């Protein structure tokens, strides 16, 4: 019983140590990569949304080829872009200071 408790504590300490090392070394890179991916995805959605509004920004052939893969996420993107945003919501994304 005592060995099991000790083993569980050692495992939890190992997990905590791994998470600390991950946060200290790789987490900023992970956040930056996710932000870049989101920016690229939003750019593609804006191009497709412009096509839906009748503004020919991308060739019809390419936008029609991309549309089936992104149609599920396009509704969520529209809701996200139409949502009210406050200055305090953006404070977490400011780099530096």
Structure in words:
This protein is mainly alpha-helical and 97 residues long. It has one domain (2-83). Helices cover 76% and strands 0% of the residues. It has helices spanning 2-25, 27-53, 60-82. It is elongated, with a radius of gyration of 22 Å. 1% of the residues are buried.
Strand-pairing-aware structural class: mainly alpha
* Helical content band: over 70%
Compute the number of helices: 3
User: What fraction strand?
Assistant: under 5%
Question: Rough shape?
Answer: elongated
Largest sheet at a glance?
none
Number of strands: 0
- In total, how many domains does the architecture comprise? 1
Rounded to an integer, what's the Rg over CA atoms? 22 Å
Low-confidence parts lasting 5 or more residues at pLDDT below 50?
none
The average pLDDT value, as a whole number, equals 80
The sequence of SSEs as H and E is HHH
User: Alpha-carbon distance between the termini?
Assistant: 50 Å
Keywords:
97 residues, mainly alpha, 76% helix
Summarize the structure.
The protein is mainly alpha-helical and 97 residues long. 76% of the residues lie in helices and 0% in strands. Helix 2 (27-53) crosses helix 3.
List the helices and strands and how they pair.
Elements: H1 2-25, H2 27-53, H3 60-82
Helix pairs in contact: 2-3
